[in-house]
Design goal:
Layout lengths: L1 H6 L5 H6 L16 H20 L6 H6 L1 H16 L2 E7 L5 H9 L17 E5 L7 E5 L9 H13 L2 E6 L5 H11 L5 E5 L7 H14 L9 E3 L5 E8 L5 E8 L4 H63 L3 H22 L6 H18 L1 H16 L6 H27 L8 H12 L2 H22 L4
Parallel strand pairs: 1-3, 1-4, 4-5, 5-6
Antiparallel strand pairs: 2-3, 7-8
Helix pairs in contact: 3-5, 3-10, 5-10, 10-11, 10-14, 10-16, 11-12, 11-14, 12-13, 12-14, 12-15, 13-14, 14-15, 14-16
Protein name: GTP-binding protein
Main location: membrane
Subcellular location: Membrane
Length: 469
């Protein structure tokens, strides 16, 4: 099954994992399995995977609500799979004959055809009864170049993303707008037929030249067998000729509809790959939704993580500000940072031990020492001031050192959070670049000012609530 082999690398990992296969192993050998049996297998896999996504109890209700439209689409796709339906969508500029082409396939005028610019203003879908059990549906879309048609163009792209097979219709050599749109459509990994309509306007020689040009321009985007020439609308043509007496004569020639090549290609694809296409499309969309769910969950975790980090920042800043013993400051700070990392690890579902947390802190602080040694110089000066006053810290001195502790915990928390979000891995950047990026994103002066004010506010508030202390 060539289409399955070519696009299986785009299937989500959770789909492949659900059948215990890797991206390299997920192919069903065409030599040993019939197209029908293989298609049924793909449909079953996709159906099970969609149900798994819909029934996943780990997804919070608020995320389901925020992605309600996408979940509705998945339910619709599940119903489509269970009924064995296949969706074919036409795509192209205004007036290239998209609606006429669909009417020709249906054998009756159902889709709107008009000389008005942009007559197709919304998505329209009709059942194609001619093939099999009527499980194929043809979808018309607005033109991609309509004036003030940004929303309709977006809708057409969305339909292309949902379709199992795309018919990209042109009426001559590709314009720049069409070529860019074709690249967008083919990037969705849906099989695409490039239909050159209205070819009755060209001579046989001109058609051969046009076919050669189109194959060259679309190499890597459209397979040669998927470039199809059609005449979707019959019309009468006036012809001037010279008779045997040398006089000009006028006659009318009928130009009939000719879509036989398109029908043959469609039937070949549907027979060989129809069920697989339907399963693939649903799986690709479900994979997109799964990724979106993951991003939403990660965003929520980052929001909670930010609140957690801020809470530990304040706790550490106040602890350092109030502690009269310099060495104890550092020990308390390390313990607080370790507790924060363990807290974050539970939030991200990647629990780690206190030893792992301590090792991570040492790595982060080591990089911070190399990249921002001045911060620790302030930290040591503040500690010396505490020691010089006999262990009795003034509020301002304590707040200054507390602000530095607050800042260091913020950096540790942000770096640890990124490490956890990447699955307890530094990724390609490594710890030094990650710490450097975090430090560059923070305005140290403003952060220290913010921290100092927050600590002082907390201390004053505490003093008011506990006048006896």
């Amino acid at each position: 099954m060539e289409i399955w082999k070519n696009v299986q690398k785009h299937l989500p990992d959770w789909l492949l994992n659900s059948i215990g296969a890797s991206k390299e192993e997920a192919t069903v050998p065409a030599e040993t399995t019939s197209a029908s049996t293989t298609g049924d297998t793909h449909l079953q896999l996709a159906t099970e995977s969609l149900r798994q996504l819909l029934d996943d109890k780990r997804i919070p209700d608020d995320i389901r609500e925020s992605l309600r439209d996408d979940y509705t689409q998945v339910r619709g796709m599940l119903d489509k799979l269970e009924h064995g339906h296949l969706h074919l969508a036409v795509f192209g500029r205004v007036s290239v004959g998209k609606s006429s082409l669909l009417n020709a396939l249906l054998g009756k005028s159902v889709f709107s055809v008009s000389v008005l610019h942009g007559e197709t203003r919304s998505v329209n879908m009709q059942q194609w009864q001619e093939y099999s059990d009527g499980g194929i549906f043809l979808i018309d879309t607005p033109g991609i170049n309509e004036i003030d048609g940004e929303s309709r163009e977006k809708m057409a792209h969305e339909v292309a993303n949902r379709a199992d097979l795309v018919l990209f219709v042109v009426d001559g050599d590709l314009t720049d707008v069409e070529f860019q749109a074709l690249k967008t459509v083919t990037s969705t990994h849906r099989p695409t037929l490039l239909i050159v309509n209205k070819v009755d306007r060209y001579t046989e020689k001109e058609q051969q030249q046009l076919r050669s040009i189109m194959r060259t321009r679309t190499q890597g985007l459209i397979a040669p067998e998927n470039l199809v020439f059609t005449t979707a609308q019959a019309h009468r043509q006036t012809v001037i000729y010279v008779d045997e007496n040398g006089e000009e004569q006028e006659t009318v020639r009928e130009r009939p509809i000719n879509i036989s090549a398109l029908k043959t290609r469609l039937w070949d694809i549907v027979e060989a790959e129809g069920k697989t296409l339907s399963a693939l499309n649903a799986s690709l969309f479900a994979g997109h939704l799964s990724k979106e769910v993951g991003q939403r969950i990660l965003a929520i975790k980052r929001e909670l993580g930010e609140k957690t980090i801020r809470m530990y920042c304040l706790g550490k800043g106040v602890a350092v500000a109030l502690n009269p013993i310099p060495v104890a400051d550092l020990l308390a700070a390390a313990a607080i940072d370790a507790s924060m990392i363990i807290h974050l690890s539970k939030l991200y579902g990647l629990p780690i031990s206190r030893n792992e947390a301590s090792e991570l802190i040492r790595t982060i602080l080591g990089q911070m020492l190399l990249l921002a040694g001045t911060v620790w110089a302030v930290h040591l000066v503040s500690a010396a001031l505490k020691l010089g006053t006999g262990g009795i810290s003034t509020i301002l001195t304590g707040a200054a050192q507390g602000a530095v502790a607050w800042y260091s915990t913020l950096v540790v928390g942000r770096v640890a959070e990124e490490w956890l979000a990447n699955g307890k891995s530094w990724g390609d950047s490594g710890p030094k670049l990650t710490v450097a990026r975090i430090l560059e994103s923070l305005d140290r002066d403003s952060v220290l000012t913010e921290a100092r004010e927050e600590i002082l506010t907390y201390l004053h508030k505490t003093a008011k609530n506990n006048p006896s202390t």
